[in-house]
Amino acid sequence: xxxxxxxxxxxxxxxxxxxxxxxxxxxxxxxxxxxxxxxxxxxxxxxxxxxxxxxxxxxxxxxxxxxxxxxxxxxxxxxxxxxxxxxxxxxxxxxxxxxxxxxxxxxxxxxxxxxxxxxxxxxxxxxxxxxxxxxxxxxxxxxxxxxxxxxxxxxxxxxxxxxxxxxxxxxxxxxxxxxxxxxxxxxxxxxxxxxxxxxxxxxxxxxxxxxxxxxxxxxxxxxxxxxxxxxxxxxxxxxxxxxxxxxxxxxxxxxxxxxxxxxxxxxxxxxxxxxxxxxxxxxxxxxxxxxxxxxxxxxxxxxxxxxxxxxxxxxxxxxxxxxx
Amino acid sequence: xxxxxxxxxxxxxxxxxxxxxxxxxxxxxxxxxxxxxxxxxxxxxxxxxxxxxxxxxxxxxxxxxxxxxxxxxxxxxxxxxxxxxxxxxxxxxxxxxxxxxxxxxxxxxxxxxxxxxxxxxxxxxxxxxxxxxxxxxxxxxxxxxxxxxxxxxxxxxxxxxxxxxxxxxxxxxxxxxxxxxxxxxxxxxxxxxxxxxxxxxxxxxxxxxxxxxxxxxxxxxxxxxxxxxxxxxxxxxxxxxxxxxxxxxxxxxxxxxxxxxxxxxxxxxxxxxxxxxxxxxxxxxxxxxxxxxxxxxxxxxxxxxxxxxxxxxxxxxxxxxxxxxxxxxxxxxxxxx
Lengths: 324, 337
Ligand SMILES: Cc1ncc(C[n+]2csc(CCOP(=O)(O)OP(=O)(O)O)c2C)c(N)n1
Ligand SMILES: [Mg+2]
Description:
The complex is a heterodimer.
Chain A: E1 2-5, H1 6-20, E2 24-28, H2 44-52, E3 53-55, H3 60-72, E4 76-83, H4 91-98, H5 101-104, E5 114-119, H6 134-138, E6 144-146, H7 151-163, E7 168-173, E8 180-183, E9 196-198, E10 204-208, H8 212-227, E11 231-235, E12 238-240, H9 244-254, E13 257-264, H10 269-280, E14 290-294, H11 303-309, H12 313-323
Parallel strand pairs in A: 2-3, 2-4, 4-5, 5-7, 6-7, 10-11, 10-13, 13-14
Antiparallel strand pairs in A: 1-8, 6-12, 9-11
Chain B: H1 15-40, H2 55-64, E1 70-74, H3 78-82, H4 88-96, E2 119-123, H5 129-143, E3 149-154, H6 161-172, E4 177-183, H7 203-206, E5 214-217, H8 221-236, E6 242-247, H9 265-272, H10 276-286, H11 291-314
Helix pairs in contact in B: 1-2, 1-10, 1-11, 2-8, 4-11, 5-6
């Protein structure tokens, strides 16, 4: 075990897979010589050389399209889209080509590829570099959607995403890049579609993803100490596949459900989970399901505004106390 | 724009190649005519975009490709898929939405694919497949397979961003990909000239990416075959991509039963007088081929088209279970446990 940042775990995950499989390639804007705008991929060029780690023009359609074509023709490529907001510039290739081609061709085409991107707010970049877009990707049949909350999961889930034979949208929380955690030195692969439960409180369950997980954990701690409310926190880790059995088990154990979502409110992932819980575990509920989300606004830039818009530890605590 | 040095000399084409070019065009023509009839009979639902009048492009490139070269085409892709060797019954049945369709009815006319024949798909969002073709070429380059990707698209496609992104990347990475613009003068209903900054929408953009401006008579299959062979083999030899503009014309409308009234009659007349198959037949006869040999090819093709039609019509619709298959590589569509 070594302590790594979330940022360094990205390169560690890619490196692990590039060493294992010669067909793994990595491309994107400023990713090779410069090591990425968030310095997530430093050292890969030096280790694996300029053919396997390659800078591209500012051409998101070409990046994602090339990754798709290469995956059709025998590689297992990873492409970076610098900021997840930029998926809007290549959404045709993601949503119409990558996601649909296997189905439309009755399984003739297999697309083992990963599209990594820095997702969400917290860095005061303003609305075009800050949106949490996990619900965009979740809405498209044919895409797997993975979003880790810890450095260990960055490495393990990225490795699993690269090994997966389906297209994976891998969303890194840019507000977590500087966070640290223990990461296994040895080969580390975490299966996709398995949520992790923290704590065993039986009053409420907080369901969270990526950047919202550390906040939910801190809120759970405060709810226990300051309000004697016992929480368990579900870290979803992936939206597709979705580990509903873990969620439903936590609902059964607690009876109160709070989702903590960074995506803007309408059609956020919590809406889907709420609807499934209402359909399948209604009689386990002791009160309404409550969604704690970023309001349905483009994200503002100024520190105070951004912090107010994205769910905070205070907002989670206050909401749970009020609703409980 | 000059004809560059080194095109295959069509005078030297051997007899087998010539008959193959004739057969491929005849197959496309008769398949497409049948597809049109079946559309009018309401047996082909949805839509269908035919290559009637544009046969020489698909046939010439089809004959020039190595069996394992990748091809990528558009919704107007029956022809391009057929010439790679895909089953005619499978294609016809796909148009009819039958269980023996090449995609079991899940793709339809606009998405014909036969990876077994390296026909890597028909793409229905204008421009999308250019970067994908570049990606396949990139994989071929890295894996050292010697494969080339050939990517077909229309004149209208030269005004969308993906065209420019893909060609730039292909040049910068020196990818083995040949981009083929079939300039049939129209997008859907609007003439390309009315919305494009330059007269030759592909060829005059080539210089921006350091490529030669290449124009070929897309109704002359020997010319198409010549330029195709030259630039596919150049790409295979590691000399990078090419962008070729083939001037051609649709015999009919854009799709479905479009009567194409937006085209001036004199223009239609002058192009129909240059029907690629009529031209080729006349050339072959002049070169001493027997009419009976050509008639025999046409007759064999007709038998094949009839059989494909009957086999498609006789097949049941696809099983409803297919709705839930092949979203994922495990064959299923589960998104939760
Ligand atoms: C991105 C996009 N915009 C619009 C359309 C609708 N559309 C389908 S075919 C077509 C015309 C394309 O013209 P061209 O590239 O010349 O190809 P052709 O049909 O002439 O072969 C249009 C506008 C589309 N499919 N995709
Ligand atoms: Mg056109």
